What we know:
Order of helices and strands of chain A: EEEHEEHEHHHEHEHEEHH
Oligomer: heterodimer
Number of helices of chain B: 12
Radius of gyration of chain B: 23 Å
Shape of chain A: globular
Order of helices and strands of chain B: HEEHHHHHHHHHHH
CATH architecture of the largest domain in chain B: Orthogonal Bundle
Number of strands of chain B: 2
Number of domains of chain A: 1
Amino acid sequence: MFLEVQNIVKSFNNEHVVKELDFSLDAHKTLSILGKSGCGKTTMLKIIAGLVEPDSGTISLKGENITHMRPEKRNIVYLYQEDLLFPHLNAFENISFGLRLKKIPEPQIKEKVNHIIASLELHGQATKMPTQLSGGQRQRVSFGRAIITNPSLLLLDEPFGSLDAGTRQRMQSLFKKLTQEYDITSLFVTHDLKEAVLMGDEIGYMRAGMLQVYKNKQDFINDPDTGVQEEIEYWKSLKG
Amino acid sequence: MKVSWKPYILTLIVLLIGFPFIFMVLLSFSSSWRFPDILPGYFGLKNWVTILGSETGLLQSFIISVVISLSVGMVSTFSGFLISRAVFYHKRRRILTLFAYFPYVLAPVVFGACLSFFFLKIGLFGNVTGVIVAQFLVAFPYALIFFGSFWNKKIKSYEDLVATLGGTPRQTFFKVLLPLAKSMLLICFFQTFLISWFEYGLTSIIGVGKVQTLTIKVFLFIKEANYYYGALSCCLLIFPPVVLLYFNKRYVFKNLV
């Protein structure tokens, strides 16, 4: 398996935030993780990214144990709900940030950034500062900044949570296109039912620090805890 | 037609605020100005020329003050920035921040008296290094409290993001934290420079008259009733803050708007 998470446990002040986390993921797949606020989704992502140390358990990526590896050595990028663009850099420099950290030669940086700007449909925005960009454009720059470093795993923590419905839909389509174009493996955390179904090749549901990954989408739909049945009934009742 | 008093009142206020400064500059060019004379007995560059001579020691005091204030400003700003980060991530950050207020609970003279014993023991009494260290002990807590507002969850998220993008803590510091804090660093340097520049009580106790900063010199001239040299040293005293104010207005506040 590409990513293997085994028996991860994490507590804060005697409160078990993550309990016996156990799942795996194949390369170039997206696992959508649905769950209510405070169920431990963000802590789980931060543990995988290396930003929070687990109390016990192991994490393996491409067969290598990375449980205690520093975040900068893991090649796992964590994307927040907020775009977190660097306010002192323009869109081009924001995207190229990770490449400059790795001291990639300048001609290669230009070529890669220009290519990704085209993929992200950001023509003519390269020299603009973050304050001059719209919410959707900022989120796309943030994606570009993460994808350009060619991460082994991309962790997305409700990335479209702050966008309006229309922009959110466009970003979902764009993300699907990019995951195929750049062979991205990702964990996509969301609290939106439809988004979880749309974005994931696999779906998991997290409750009280425990993650259940479903064998297929039908199992997920049939589980009464996920709320899918309620949603279906609601729309049916509107139809009359 | 209704007469507007606003321009007249504004002019009067500007004159009232500006007059002491204008009078101070005029006084620095004067000498032999005794009551009831309306004009001074001498008006010219004589006082200013004495800056270059060693008679009054004003030039020396000016240079010492610049060296002390630049050292205190730079060291306390950078150390305050770095240590405030450690304080923010510390479990007991509230109590540590509370300690930073300690130097301000005591009057500078009392604080100086408390320090003098230790400074005497370690040979920092009556020299420039001692004055720099003493003033640093006042300016550093200010910087620590000042940068307390910079560190927050968003900055932590930036740090985490850079780490996952492959950045080392050193790269995070130079490529993200310093640019983000640029304006605050400049303002803090300006403030700590001013704290040091106008410091009197602590400097007079630790310097024991051997380290004559410009502020000490101003008080000496006033005690001697030498108003002309007093005004001259005051002109020198306000020169660096005015230059800093100009740079702040041009490069810092412009970016904040």
